[in-house]
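Let's do one together. I've listed all components of the complex below, 763 residues spread over two lines.
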Amino acid sequence: MDSGYVALVLNAHLPFVRQPDYPRFLEERWLFESLSETYLPLLRVFSRLEADKVPWKLSLAISPTLTAMLGDSLLRSRYTAWLHEQLQLAEKEMDRCAGDRTFEPLAAMYQNLYRQNLEDFTILYEENILGAIDFYYKKGRLDLMTSSATNAFLPIYRAYPEAIAAQVEAAVVSFRSAFGRSPSGFWMPQLGWYPGVEETLSAYGLQYTVVSTRGALLGDPTPRFGSYAPVSCPNGFTAFVRDVAATDAVWSETTGYPADPAYRDFYRDIGFDLPLESIAPYIEQNQIRTFTGFKYWAITGSGDEKLPYAPEMASRKLAAHVEAFLADRSAQAAAAMPYMNGRPPLMVAPYDAELFGHWWFEGPQWLDTLFRQAQRSEGLRFVTLAEYRRGYGDNFESVPEYSSWGDGGYGGVWIEKSNDWVYRHVFKMVERMVELAERFPDESGLRERVLNQAAREVLLAQASDWPFLLRAGKSGSFARKQIEDAVTNFNRIYEMLCANTVGTEWLTRLEKRNNLFPDINYRVFRRKR
Amino acid sequence: MNVERLNGLSIDALYALADKMGLDLPAGLERVFLVEALMEAFEEDREERKASGDAAVHMEEKKFSGSELDEIDASIDAAPCIEKRYNETVVHVIVRDPEWAFVFWDVRDEELDALKASDGYCCLFLRVIKEPGYDGKGSSSFDVVVGDDDDHWYLHLPDDDRAYRVDLYARSGSRSRLLAHAAVTRTPRALIADCLADLTPGAAELAALSGLASLEIVPAPEHHPSRILGGFDE
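Okay, and this is what the predicted structure of the assembly comes out as:
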């Protein structure tokens, strides 16, 4: 008899950044770093677990923008070129650290990492990461979920059902195109849920999502099983509930496992430590210091004095953290069990996938060890959300409240003084797009292309990443430019259509640059009556 | 942000960063003092954010590493200028949380000019109507006067779990003229929907085990009036 279930949910997402007009572009590194430190290392974990016949399972949400970038030939070739540069830097680091008993093995560790990445990416997967993910999806190890088209924080657009439908439809179509079947699970970006969104999700065949603990506990009526079982909306849509304790154990910057002094420090990087002349070719424009990925120090403490990173010490800590995670979940399940009417408690632990490896260097290894240890753990079983839903279809009926996993638990991160100017423009774009779809409901040829591009620009402007970055004060100018570009492109299209003229050269260039969602149908923006 | 990163910046860039952080530093400071002041500000900012709640978004920031500085962002083309407004008479409301809503509006130039030229024009104001019915009237309402040059406000909404509508009006003498109204919106609940005492013991226990206290969610008081007298609990 299972005494409790754990569902790990990873959300893999990056905003759409693709700049073919530039030979290299700083923000494209977000994808390259995530591929090198998260996606490829995770695939290696999956492969090892498979080879050792470990019964691992997890739910993986992969956003449509990330799907588009992983499938894009330009970005794939740029990633290969970037890997070669990293290997060149690794070579230099091996020379620099030669003979140093502390640092030479660390330089070798990075050299091996990038060599392995290059081999896996180009030879093993033939640049097709989506195919590798699909392999585990078809094997039933991964429960793949989609997300909104451009990571839009949906509660903001609730007054525009056309915008919500467009975000969902573009996501579902993109998923079908990448994986050959329709998705059942939907990741609400930022866990941004509002009552009523389940109607649109169900209309597209989606069946389940994850909501914040706050959203569930404030649901109407109050859930019978707290966060230990999903709730069903009246239309049958299932909302799984984030488990606070399981999530905080890994997420918390101060008390979470990744904050342990033995783990590798994220910030200390040779991009900031070494003389400019020795790292110039590997940083931005040969002069602006950026992360290189070569980090030799352990977290150690909050000060600037750091101890060298010792992988064997980190491995010992990692084993202890796996034990702690399993013990804590077992204890949680035991505490909840008496009130569950015989139903084993479920603990849903959703994380950003990029946490594993990119931020928490040891994260992929932690997952590997976790699944191996779990098979020896009595009573606790790892499940996917889809699997649990099949087993327990009869849930307490409740509708979660408007909520998110952001600071404060609602929309405060995406609606505040640094980013609120965005919505005047995006709302106007949505209204104009609805107007265009109504005026031109049955276009074909060039005008249809124009309208489809307009729809893409609306979706791009809705990305919650840009307001998020504006608030965080990171890449603020870049984030602002992404929004302003989308607004400008859209307004130009709108004016062209109003004037009944189309600049085909400009349109073709724009289609080539913002080439995501090739199957988009602008008619999704027709007024919902 | 760390000392190494700050030491890699020019003095001008450090001052620009200080300005962005809201620090008012005297000119001509040596690098060491500039870096020290910035590190303190970053630490304070970090502590504030940590205290403010959920860790999820803090972690999310990490995947956008490598481009923390606007100095780097300046490496791309200058952003295109976009029009700041669309010269239309409109008002929109976005509910942010149980207490606050972001309201933005605009009045067509010709309309505003005509209003200002009219006899007795006094001001623009937002009318916040609670629980609006089909007739447009609600259980209560209040007005917030805004400046002619304002175009957005954060409005405090008095109650959670209530429907509100915000209308944009112009006041001339003793008369008020409706210019635009936003769609009805609803504030989310801040309290648990059901009184814990009304739940089965198991449900109350599981709510507690789910982290009710750490989320700072306040259970509804026994016989929470808003659940009984919807709309008349003031």
